[in-house]
Every structure is written in C-alpha cells, then in structure tokens.
Write a structure and sequence with these properties.
It contains 41 helices and 17 strands. It comes from Ceratobasidium theobromae.
C-alpha cells in the first residue's frame, strides 16, 4: 500500500506497525498454501538501461540485481567486499545462462560506512564512458549489535542505512548522471512506523545513543530503535526528495519511491556483528517468527524491482510514497497546496476514526495567549524598545519559557482543528508565530521549530506536521491575499512614520526628500513589534515573484526603515530582508522605482559602520547583498558596475582598515569581504594594488596581542585573497614580487616553527595557500627572483625545503600546461571544427555581413586574401568589397584611403574601423618599405596613418567607432623609444618582445589621443585586448613551436568576441578612451598608456613621419 508522510502519535504508529506486521505474517503464512498469491516479478525490456544496486552481493540486493540483469539492463553491483561481489557477479551470469553478456554485470566498491568511499565511487563513475543512470536501488544496510561510530562521526546504522545513500544520490544528481525519467528506489522497512520522532531532542544528551559508550553491546530493543530510525529517515527523505525534484525542470520526471520489501529471511539476522551476535528471548522469538512466516529473498526483491520498472508507480499521483509490500489495502485522502499556483496532489492519507484531543483549548484562545506573551515582551525593558540582545537574561529566559508553552498550546489547537483556518485566523497565525523564526535574543531553537511547523500548516493546511528547522525554505507559495492582509494589518501600522526617502503609498524613491530619518523619533515598530522583521522576511520568502510588485508599497517602507536604522542589529535584520527581496524582484522594477540607488546608498552606509561592535557581522551580511544588487541591476558591460565595485574599495574596505587595525575579527571580516569584491572586479582589481598588497602581506604576520586561532583565520583569509589578486593582475606582480615574497617567507617561518599546532587543519590549510602563492610568484617573476631563491636554499634548508620543493618552475609549468589542456578539452572538441581556419578579421567580417552591413576587407592581394574573400562571400548577406592595402608601405596606405573615399564620394560614411593587422617576432632584418621596424611599422605606424587618412570621413559619420587591436603586451614597454623603431644599431639591440610591446603601446596612445581630441564630435575610439588567440601572427616561427603555443591558446572565434562587442555594444558611448579585455568587459591599462603628455607627443610624431605621404593630415596636428 502507498503511505503518506503525515505524522502520527506514538500509540497510533505502534498500532499501525503491529497491524501491518500481523497482516504480513498472516499473508506469508497463506502464500505457500496459495501459489497464485505469490507476487510475480514484472518483466520489462531493459536493454540499453543502466542500473546501480547497492549491497548487491547477497540477499534482496542480489536478487534485485539478478532480476534487472535478466531483463537486459547493464547492472553495477555496488558492494564493499570485492571478493563477495565478484562471486555474486559470476553467480548472476551463470544463473541467467547464455542470454547474459559477461560485461553486462560490473562491480564497483562502495562502503556505506565511509563517506570517502561514496565520494570515490562518484569519482570513478565520472570517469566512465557511459554515465547515464536509469535506475538506482539504495538497498545496502544492516543492523548492529554494538555502539559503533563511523570514521565520519555518525552512528553506524544511521550512516550505512541512510546518510551514505543520501550523499550518493545527491552527488550523482549534481553530476548530471540521472536520465530524465530515472527511478530512485530506497529500501526502507516496516520499522518506519515505530520510529520515534526525529526532532531537536535527538541532538542532546538524552538521545538513545548517548546511553552507551563506544564499543558497548546493545540490547535487542535498542538495536531495533536505531535501525527503525535510519529506515524512517530513508523513507521521509524519499518523500522530500521527490517533492524537491518535481520543482526542478530537468528532474521533474524522476520518480522517487521507498518501500518495505516484506519480512524476509535475510542474512542480516545471522550476521555476527548484527542480530546473529546478539541474544535475548525477544530476539529469539523474532527470529522464530521470521523463519516461520518470512519470505525468501527472491520474493523480497519483487517490490523494489516493481517500483523500478513498472508503469503504475510512475504515475504522478503515486510518486514519492512509502510502499508496504502487500498492496491490497488502500487508504485514500487528498489535500490541496494553497497559493497562486494552487494545484491538487493526490497523496493517499490514512483515515483514523478517532484522534485523541491533546488540548481542548480553542484556536482563538491559543492565539490570544500568544499575543498576550508578545505584549509582555515589550515591557521587559521598562517600556523602552526591547533592543536585540539587551534584555535582562533572567527575565528573558522566564518569558521565553512562557512563550514556548503558548506556542505548544497553539500547535495542539491547530492539530485538533477540524476545519481549515479562515483568512483572519491565517493572518493571526502568521503574524504571531513568524515572529519567532529568526535568530533573535527572545527566541531559541525550540520556539523556531514549533513556529515553523505552524506557518507550514497555514500555507499547506496539512496536519500532523513534524518539521525540521529548514522546512520554511522548502514550502510552497503563499497566496497574495493572505500576504497582503499580514503586511497591511500587522506590519504597516508599526511603521507609521515612513522613511523620508520613500513614498509611503507607492514604494518609490523621493528624489528631493525634505528630511532624513531621525534616530530620536518615536519608533513604534521597536516598542510594539519585536520580530516584525521576521514576519516581513517570511512573507517575502513565500510569496510568488509575480506578487512582489503588487505588494511593493507594503514592503519597501519598512525595509528601508530597518536598513537605515542607527542601531546595527536592526540594520543586519534589514539586510537579511533585502537579500530575500533581491531574489524575488526583477531588475526593471528596482530601476523603475529608483529603489536600486536607494538600496546602494543604504548598504554602503551599513558597510561603513566599522566602529561598531557589530562591524564584523555587518560586513559578512551586507557585502554579499551589495554584490547581489550589482549583479542584478548592472550588466557586465556597464561602466557603472566597475564604478560601484570601486566605491566598495575606496569608500569602505580601505578606510575600514584604519579603524580595524587593532580589531582582528573586523580585519578578518573585511578581508573576506574584499575577496568577494576582487572576484567581482576581475582584472580591474589591479587598480588598487598599492592598497591591497601591503595590507594583505602585513596580515600574514602574526598579531602579538590576538589569540593564535584568530590570527590564523586572518592569515588564511589574507592568503586566499592575495592569491586571487595575483592571478587577476599577473602583469603587475613583478613590481610587487619582493613585498609578496617577504610576507610569505615570514609567515612560513612562523607557521613552521609552531610545532605545537603543526597537525592543526588550519595550519595545513595556510601552508597549502603559501605554497600556491609561492608557485604563482615564481611563475610570474621566476627569472627576477633567482638571487632570492639561491639565498633561500642556502639560508635554512630545513625550514624552507618544503616550500621550494613544492614550487619548482618545472613542476609549476607542467601543472599550468595540464590545467590549460584540461580546460581546452572541456570546452572544445578534440577535432577542431572548421572555424579554426578563420582568423579574427574573417570572423569579424562574417558577423558584420550577417547583419547586412557593407564591409571593406582590406589586405594584401595574395592567396590568403582570396581564401578569406571566398569564405566571406559565402555568407550571402550584406555587401563585400576588397580594398587592397599593404601596411608595410605608407604610400600604399594613402592610395587605399583615397580609393575608399572616392568609392564613397556620394555618401561619405564610415561607421566602424577595425585596426587589426599585426606582426609578431619576425626576423631582425625585416623592415617596412619606408625603413621602419616591421612590427612597429605594421602594428602602430601603418594603423595610425590609415586612421588619419580616413579621419575626415569619420568626422562626417554620426558616432563612428574605431577599434584598435592592442594587447596586454603594452605592459612590456613603459614608453615608446622612437630611435628603436627606425633601422639602426638601437633597433637591432632592442629586445623583440619590447619592440612588440611598444608597438601596441603606441597604438593605444594614438587611440586614446584620438578619443581625447574628438570625442565631443562623436568619435568613439577603443583599445582592446582580444585574448591569447590562435592566429597566423606566429607565421615566422617553426611549425612545431607554433603547434605547442596553440595548445595554450583560445580559438579564433573567441578572439572576435571583444572587438565585436566594442564595435557594436549599446554601451558604446561609455567605451571611448577605455581598454576592453576578454571577454567583452572593461579592464584597466597601464597608467602611462593614458598619460596625456605622452599621447600628444606620440600623435605629433605620427604626423611628422607620415605627412609627406598625405599632406592633408597636417590639419589634425593642432587640437
């Protein structure tokens, strides 16, 4: 029979358990006499399906695996004993005869008494060529006669029978292994009925397992109770898992069932570490009963197999249930999930002719008593607001005891209530009980558990609720009408004085507020509404997203009153409510009402309150909320996003370090907050290296007046943050190498010499981070640190050997190569598709043509050009023209520009110019036609001259864009040495990499000066770094060398992302004069690339070198 999850009193549960046992025993007694009553194993074609059966080397698991294999399934026997599992495998193959293939049955090791074994199983599964799972039978388990704790710290039966199956199933779900219509069958037991309730009392010293020491022998009744608890958890979890999966699109058709397979003559009763090694008259009686009336393992496997393959248990109304083996008794009942998405589910529910009333008190009277207790709470502080964590301890404890009694009485009244509550009663229940669900001084875990159970009843109208603490986050939607009643009749009257920056009746921002929130005004919500923030948070958590806008005027005023309160604990409550709001609210609503900017301001105020005793907690809760708001309302290509993130650094974190220098706990919270900001900034964090690196390296040193544990937490947090910053700003790290190295070495000495705590996990974590930082530093600045490394080896080989042994350049380079190759193979197939034949200009041209643009493909007339033109012509859209140009010849550039201008004489227009051509590391003897270094002549001089020749046309075009293909290599040269770009001894002595770097720096200087001079006339000039891309610029190098380089590079189509974004993004007006980096975001270039004096000097030099070829460009010399 299917059985629902509703809670029963202990007498009723025991009665049902006894009744079911007697019925099964009687049925099993009759079965041998009436062969037709045998339950037959269903026969289904499972060819192409894959199944996992845990505990499959004997008993029910073995018979289940054999049945699935006989139907053609690929079966994996997940067992802890490999020898027995192999015997079972051979037995299945032998039993099924010639129809079985030898590789159809596989063995994988899985010990449910060890989480590490479960994780290893999942890792092994990840490596399989065929990972899809159609069926999983969580069967493994047992009963123990000894008080035993697993290596993971859990009671042995509970972990083996339940927790490991939870970990296994969820891990495989997360890995994406389950088929869309997979079956999950959890083998439970009839002992489910007799299990005691699982609540907070199981965690204290009164629990049954606390009566025995590790290794003590357990009596039979205790063995059964522990076994029953694990099997009850297995069944309840199955129901919860099914409900959760139904709400997720990709898993909504997965079927989860739990079952009692019957009273089976299982080997579990003879195992020496289980029932076989225990004694007692009650145990002997039970064994006799099983041997007399029990069924064999083959019959015991029928129900798990039936649930795994038959069509009936996959019906929507029969999913997520507990199945008793004998299905000839049917209970019926229905309940409705309330809410704007109301839908009816048919879960069979037991019908009982009599349920004893545990409390005769009416619902109204119980609500009145609880309301009276809440009124008394306001008097604990002599009529003042009952500030958080400030009420007298003794009086508060007395009040809390009284409140939990009232809550229990209300729960009893609800459980015996014969009808669904009317709207007024629903509103009162939420308004009084949701007060207790937060983590405030006037409530505790007991109050929270009872209160959450009652609000669950209000939303779902389900009786016999026994809920864990986190069930509030998992319940269904609250209907808009009830939510409106609670907010209107309970929350709104407490906030009679609206926040001065918010319209009380619309929830919109006031753009010219006449006042500010006065901390001395009478604040009714503090005096008469303790816990009102919990009510607001609960309502927000449970309404539908579509209802938020309708309830906006009821939500926003109290929210901002909390956010801007002068007392930090209330601000923290406000931030918690804001986090819930951001999960429910679309960005358009926040922007339309102006609440986004108001919330930025309020959160920034909370983050700047660093002198408070609550500073650490404020940073921990407000920073994630601020970043969530940034992610919601500011897209990645919006320059305001970078500005908002930068404000966090300049206005909050860096100034906060001045206040927190003597408060280590605030420093820890500040560094943890900085880590979040740095991850959001990406390479933009290099702007603040002068502030970050000195502080973080200072934090690595021990603090003399702080506890060692606190200091260690600060060191770990700082090391994690420093590592991220180093990876974000690699090109800048050589400048900081000595500062970082000094901090790492001093910290390493402190950690290594602390022998008392050398095995502490925090010490191990810190040493791992220091080694990673050291390796990263060597990868970035290895050649510059040769002297320091040599001195380090000679200084103290005992202390530093572990550090530099784990940080050799060879090992690091191999690790980098492996990670890059792995990342490449994850994102791109082993056989490169056809687009790898295209270069960035080809792909950019294809994108423009695909949108119907008129495209001029400019290049030399050679075989490569013909191939590109043919590829572009196949697009079949837009208009393609070829413009012959040789960037090694200034005369050719001038002729090509004249040809373009004459071809467009009737409609002078150029919307987008992409300066892409580049040379890299050619032979030293290669020069341009005019005697310039080939790299500088093509990458910089030629591109700049072409732009100047086309500038008259660009100035006549509305808002044209010039995209200059720069590079991160601009950081390789701090200035342009103009004597090194003309043939001579200076050029030949110049490092080729520096030559390439100054060519890209010159192009950036020209582009930035172009923007500075003409941005008011609509010109948008952007410098970009397309990424480390597979292109033909390495044509001068040997093929084997280029092949190795290409392994470490991104494909060409990714190189087109950033230039296309810069050329077409709607945010184009904000990109002028900026530096764009992969993939389509604004980065930070070197400061000297934006130096106005250098920009002017370079502009003049370009004109000096080229005006003899085109005298008209002299008009652009002066600003």
């Amino acid at each position: 029979m299917p059985y629902s999850e509703h809670r029963h009193s202990t007498p009723i549960a025991s009665f049902l358990s006894t009744l079911s046992a007697l019925r099964n025993g009687l049925g099993n007694f009759i079965i041998p006499l009436l062969p037709l009553m045998h339950m037959n194993t269903p026969v289904v074609n499972l060819h192409g399906k894959q199944a996992i059966v845990t505990g499959a080397n004997s008993g029910i698991g073995f018979e289940t695996a054999k049945s699935l294999a006989s139907m053609g399934a690929q079966v994996v026997l997940a067992c802890r004993n490999k020898e027995k599992a192999e015997q079972a495998r051979h037995s299945i193959i032998a039993t099924t005869g010639a129809t079985m293939q030898a590789n159809q049955i596989e063995v994988e090791i899985l010990d449910c008494a060890s989480f590490d074994s479960v994780r290893q199983f999942v890792q092994n599964w990840r490596k399989r060529s065929h990972m899809r799972i159609d069926i999983i039978i969580n069967n493994a388990g047992g009963i123990s006669n000894t008080r035993r704790t697993t290596v993971d710290g859990h009671e042995d039966a509970y972990q083996s029978n339940h927790l490991s199956h939870v970990l296994l199933t969820l891990s495989l779900l997360q890995l994406g292994c389950f088929a869309p219509d997979a079956r999950i069958v959890n083998v439970s037991s009839i002992a489910f009925f007799s299990s005691p309730a699982l609540d907070e009392f199981n965690t204290d010293s009164g629990d049954i397992i606390c009566r025995y020491q590790e290794g003590d022998s357990l009596p039979w009744d205790t063995m059964v109770e522990l076994y029953a608890r694990s099997k009850a958890s297995q069944a309840v979890w199955s129901m919860v898992l099914q409900r959760k999966l139904q709400g997720i699109e990709q898993w909504k058709n997965i079927v989860v069932q739990s079952c009692h397979p019957g009273i089976v003559k299982s080997s579990m009763l003879s195992q020496p570490n289980g029932a076989g090694g225990a004694t007692g008259s009650d145990l002997d009686m039970f064994k006799s009963f099983v041997q007399t009336f029990g069924i064999d393992n083959q019959q015991g496997a029928v129900v798990p197999v039936w649930l795994a393959v038959a069509e009936e248990p996959a019906q929507p109304e029969l999913r997520g249930l507990y199945w008793d083996r004998m299905r000839w008794i049917n209970f019926s009942g229905r309940f409705t999930l309330r809410g704007s998405r109301a839908r009816e589910h048919s879960f069979p529910r037991p019908h009982h002719p009599y349920i004893p009333r545990l409390a005769m008190q009416s619902l109204d009277e119980a609500l009145d008593n609880l309301s009276s207790d809440l009124t008394k709470l306001t008097s604990l502080n002599q009529g003042e607001p009952p500030e958080l964590n400030t009420e007298p301890a003794v009086e508060l404890a007395t009040w809390r005891n009284s409140a939990i009694v009232s809550l229990e009485k209300l729960k009893d009244a609800i459980n015996t209530y014969q009808d669904n509550p009317n709207p007024i009663e629903r509103e009162r229940i939420i308004s009084t009980t949701a007060v207790f669900i937060g983590h405030d001084s006037f409530t505790d875990h007991g109050c929270q558990t009872v209160a959450i159970g009652m609000v669950l009843f209000v939303v779902w109208s389900v009786r016999w609720v026994d809920t864990p603490e986190d069930c509030l986050n998992k319940i269904g939607a609250l209907d808009r009408s009830t939510a409106s009643d609670v907010l209107t009749n309970y929350v709104k009257p407490l906030f009679t004085t609206a926040h001065p920056s918010v319209h009380l009746h619309t929830g919109r921002i006031k753009h010219n507020p006449l006042s500010v929130q006065n901390m001395y005004d009478e604040q009714t919500w503090k005096i008469n509404g303790p816990g009102c923030w919990n009510v607001l948070a609960w309502v927000l958590s449970n309404i539908e997203s579509d209802d938020v806008e309708k309830l906006w005027p009821l939500i926003i005023p109290p929210l901002f009153t909390l956010l801007d309160d002068y007392h930090p604990p209330y601000r923290i409550r406000g931030v918690n409510v804001a986090q819930i709001l951001l999960k429910k609210t679309p960005a358009t609503l926040l922007r339309r009402t102006g609440i986004d900017e108001l919330m930025f301001k309020a959160l920034r105020g909370a983050l700047q309150n660093l002198t408070s005793d609550w500073a650490s907690e404020l940073l921990c809760v407000a920073m994630p909320c601020y970043l969530a708001l940034v992610d919601l309302v500011l897209p990645n290509d919006d320059i305001r996003r970078f500005n908002k993130l930068s404000e966090l650094v300049t206005d909050t974190i860096v100034p906060g370090w001045l206040y927190a220098s003597s408060r280590v706990e605030v420093l820890i919270a500040s560094v943890n907050a900085l880590l979040l900001v740095v991850q959001a900034l990406g390479s933009g964090s290099v702007r603040f290296l002068k502030a970050f690196i000195p502080q973080l390296t200072e934090n690595l040193l021990p603090k003399e007046f702080s506890p060692s544990e606190t200091t260690r937490d600060l060191q770990i947090a700082s090391a994690e943050c420093l590592l991220i910053i180093m990876k974000n700003g690699r090109p800048r790290m050589p400048h900081w190498r000595l500062r970082i190295l000094g901090g790492v070495l001093r910290c390493w000495v402190n950690v290594t010499e602390n022998t008392a705590q050398k095995n502490d996990n925090s010490i191990k974590r810190l040493k791992t981070l220091l080694i990673e930082i050291f390796r990263e530093l060597l990868a970035i600045s290895g050649p510059l640190l040769e002297n320091e490394m040599s001195a380090l080896r000679d200084l103290d080989s005992h202390i530093f050997s572990e550090l530099y042994r784990n940080s050799t350049m060879l090992e690091f380079l191999f690790d980098i190569f492996s990670r890059l190759k792995k990342a490449w193979r994850q994102h791109y197939p082993a056989d490169p598709p056809s687009w790898t034949q295209d270069d960035i200009p080809d792909l950019t041209g294809k994108a423009f043509l695909g949108k119907g643009a008129k495209v001029y493909f400019a290049g030399r007339r050679n075989a490569r050009a013909y191939i590109s033109i043919d590829s572009l012509a196949r697009i079949g859209k837009g208009e393609l023209r070829f413009l012959e140009i040789d960037l090694t010849s200034l005369d050719s550039i001038h002729i090509a520009a004249l040809e373009f201008l004459s071809a467009n004489s009737q409609e002078v227009k150029l919307d987008i110019l992409v300066n892409n051509a580049a040379e890299f590391l050619p032979p030293i003897d290669m020069l341009t036609v005019d005697g310039y270094d080939l790299v500088f002549g093509v990458n910089c001089l030629g591109a700049c001259f072409l732009t100047l020749c086309l500038l008259p046309c660009l100035l006549k075009t509305p808002n044209p864009r010039i995209v200059n293909m720069a590079s991160e290599a601009h950081r390789w040269a701090q200035r342009v040495d103009y004597t090194s770009v003309i043939e001579g001894d200076v050029r030949r002595r110049t490092d080729p990499f520096v030559q390439y770097g100054q060519s890209k720096l010159g192009l950036m200087l020209f582009g930035n000066e172009l923007h500075r001079r003409y941005h008011k006339r609509g010109i948008i000039s952007v410098s970009i770094h397309p990424g480390t891309i597979v292109t033909n610029c390495y044509k001068h190098k040997p093929g084997w060398f280029v092949s190795i380089l290409h392994l470490l590079m991104y494909p060409a189509h990714m190189g087109a992302i950033t230039p296309l974004w810069a050329a077409t993004s709607p945010a184009g007006s904000d990109l002028g004069g900026r530096y764009a980096i992969p993939w389509a975001r604004v980065g930070q270039c070197e400061s000297y690339a934006e130096d106005v004096d250098r920009m002017k000097e370079h502009w003049a030099w370009i004109i000096d070198q080229t005006e003899r070829f085109s005298p008209n460009i002299a008009q652009f010399r002066d600003e």
